Amino acid sequence: MQVPLLDLKSQYAKIEKDVLAAVSEVLSSQRCIGGPKVAEFEKKIAAVSDCKYAVGVSSGTDALLLSLMSLDVGYGDEVITTPFTFFATAGSIARVGAKPVFIDIDPLTYNIDASEIESAITKKTRAIIPVHLYGQVADMDSIMQIAQKYKLPVIEDAAQSISSAYKGKKAGSIGNAGCFSFFPSKNLGGIGDGGMVVTNDKDFYDRLVIMRNHGSNPKYYHDFIGGNFRLDPIQAAALIVKLPFLDQWSQARRCNAEYYNSKFAYTIVNTPYISNDCQSIYNQYVIRVPKRDELVKYLRQNQIGCEVYYPVPMHLQKCFENLGYKKGDFPQAEKAADEVLAIPIYPELTDEMKDYVVEKILSFFN
Ligand SMILES: *Cc1c(COP(=O)(O)O)cnc(C)c1O
């Protein structure tokens, strides 16, 4: 049996006609920049995330970059974040000229350890970017408390956690801004790159809209230096078709997670820890195991897709050598990088496929 890590073809087969019709509508209209599809999709994402405003952008990475640029974060500034994330989080901070300041993670949730944030705040700190890794929101109450005490804006990197909930609040609605990605492998994936920034702050929203379009306001007059961070209306059209399925897809992922949890109970396989405060959308189902790299080889030999998110924490990346971090600085992040493994969790998995995955993992350890 073959079980890929993700199978987008089976999902697409069910919505192909509607996606093609929606894309065709954009092409016939020849409104290929901005236009009604982008505006409609922005409204819908604002609603899904319980936010007043949403700004469609070209990717999740650009959502982060645009947010930082719109906050005027730049040279000489510091931004606090986690070293255990996809590169874009730290990369965006560095791209505006600021310094990423890393904090170790909570070994259970893999999210930033909020209790360590305060000691990292300096006069140069300009923002905090928690990442809601794998589909679970970070410890936002603690993070917001510290942020409010020091009057620091919080940008939620919710790229993996759209519609995920924390104490009944939606990911992206708790901080000053929330950043989403519509990279095809995310729970709500486009047919190419796309992203969104959500916020409840009208002034910040106005700034984001201007900065998304070269800082131009009115046209050809530039008080600020922005960029081209616009969302493609073809992506918006396809995503409008997919959005109504988001809840059921996330629910199916949760069911698959429960299935795995029960099968791996009382085994050597550590299953994901989900805090009582959170409802995860399981963008990834990540187990923690000894002999992880041998298991990866074994699973691939048995045609089971799996992936390590992420094998090298940000503080040990070559491009961040100049920040002066060294091995051992963030032991929890480093340990997680050596032990985590994402296994197939996508909604269309059958029981036979899940059983095969479980059987192979357990037989490896026996
Ligand atoms: C996917 C992802 C991003 C970047 O999104 P893109 O749309 O691929 O640019 C940023 N942060 C995290 C945590 C992600 O998982």
Question: Summarize this, please?
Answer:
The chain has 366 residues and is α/β, with parallel strands linked by helices. It is built from 11 helices and 12 strands.
Structure description:
α3 (60-70) packs parallel to α4 and α3 (60-70) crosses α6 (202-212). The chain has 2 domains: 8-243, Type I PLP-dependent aspartate aminotransferase-like (Major domain) (Aspartate Aminotransferase, domain 2), CATH 3.40.640.10; 245-365, Aspartate Aminotransferase, domain 1 (Alpha-Beta Complex). It has a 4-stranded mixed sheet, with helices on both faces. It has helices spanning 8-29, 36-48, 60-70, 87-95, 140-149, 202-212, 233-242, 246-264, 292-301, 331-339, 351-365; strands at residues 53-57, 78-81, 99-102, 125-129, 155-157, 165-166, 169-170, 177-181, 195-199, 278-279, 285-288, 340-343. 38% of the residues lie in helices and 12% in strands. The longest helix is centred in the first third of the chain and has 22 residues, at 8-29. With 366 residues, the protein is of the alpha/beta class. Pyridoxal-5'-phosphate (PLP) binds at residues 59-61, 85-86, 88-89, 131, 157, 159-160, 181, 183, 193, 195.
What labels would you give this structure?
366 residues, alpha/beta, Aspartate Aminotransferase, domain 2, Aspartate Aminotransferase, domain 1, three-stranded parallel beta sheet, 12 strands, globular, binds pyridoxal-5'-phosphate
Fold blueprint:
Blueprint (H helix, E strand, L loop, with lengths): L7 H22 L6 H13 L4 E5 L2 H11 L7 E4 L5 H9 L3 E4 L22 E5 L10 H10 L5 E3 L7 E2 L2 E2 L6 E5 L13 E5 L2 H11 L20 H10 L3 H19 L13 E2 L5 E4 L3 H10 L29 H9 E4 L7 H15 L1
Parallel strand pairs: 2-3, 2-4, 5-8
Antiparallel strand pairs: 1-9, 6-7, 6-10, 8-9, 11-12
